[in-house]
């Protein structure tokens, strides 16, 4: 009997994923019947899922052994009361690479004050200020998970003094690791650039509120590819207008797409990017999905299973 895998991640993604998933299942030696058509729920062994996909009620999938999310973030599914099956999030090496490139690029943009020259090709020779070198520019990464660690390491390799902050204590070579509330105060003090790579949970929502923004040094820059609600939008706008925060580069928002009338679009100290920091890539993500199906069939623990109580 083949293993029944239901691709419920939305019709738009099916053309992108069908061939890579089939190839990955074959590579893993799995006999899989893969379908994106609404199946007999009782016959489904695994569900490949993405928010805004094809399922909101998981109750009928009584025999399903695992729900395999295509996204790294699970805030849109983790609280679903009908989901009693194990839930795995996506850790995709290519997604991580893309995030490292996006974060490094935007940190370097601010570090080098690239805009001053790139946006002003006007005949004025602005040689007043040479940028400091990276080792003089402390960067803090909030979140030391798959993405935060990779970005922190890449920035440390460029000589930025990197501080990382997480819920539980960590040791990561080349990164000063802090945790807990006291650790956050220390991580923010002195950070000239702050990168947010936390999941959205009850414990991280509005983490960057007025008080924490005020704890950053004057002129600090925020780079947020994590999730929009990690920051209190009004507090950020007030801190930007007061000149306390120098710039915010935001990839994620409370409402996406960011409404055209939102003040972030027109704000001279805000850069909006449309949730493109990084994306799950079908070929490598399919191999992760196949490995988890293999594990499920072999009775081995899943990779990247979400702790439902923790929320990530
Ligand atoms: P992980 O689950 O691997 O890491 C999460 C990190 O956040 C961990 O270090 C964890 O601490 C820390 N954390 C969680 N809650 C708290 C808290 N209350 N206080 C302090 N630290 C906390 O996630 P990833 O690195 O894979 O992804 C991070 C997020 O990036 C995703 O959830 C998603 O929102 C976002 N993302 C954005 C994309 C984009 O294109 N913009 C693309 C992909 C992801 P601990 O280690 O102690 O558990």
UniProtKB/TrEMBL annotation:
A matching Pfam family: 2-Hacid_dh_C
NAD in keyword set: yes
Keywords: NAD, Oxidoreductase
Domain D-isomer specific 2-hydroxyacid dehydrogenase NAD-binding positions: 121-277
Superkingdom to which the source organism belongs: Bacteria
InterPro entries: D-isomer_DH_CS (IPR029753), D-isomer_DH_NAD-bd (IPR006140), NAD(P)-bd_dom_sf (IPR036291)
Name by which UniProt lists this protein: 2-hydroxyacid dehydrogenase
Lineage: Bacteria, Pseudomonadati, Pseudomonadota, Alphaproteobacteria, Rhodobacterales
